[in-house]
Amino acid sequence: MEPAAAKRSNVISFERKDFCAVKCDICGAKMFPMSLLQTHLSNHRRHQRWLNGELRKLQDTFSRMRGIA
Q: What pLDDT is attached to residue 3?
């Protein structure tokens, strides 16, 4: 299944040449070729997992601090 972002193509113009590109729905970056979108989206997911892990650590720390007080 192809993401919705891959269906909407944009044009990147460089030195009077037009290239068919795809736009990321999350950050708005344009990519050419379209095959780079999957790697880009996996980087977004990896970053989100990292943020969730850091948030979980912070929540655990605060809950322990509330338990001590």
A: 53
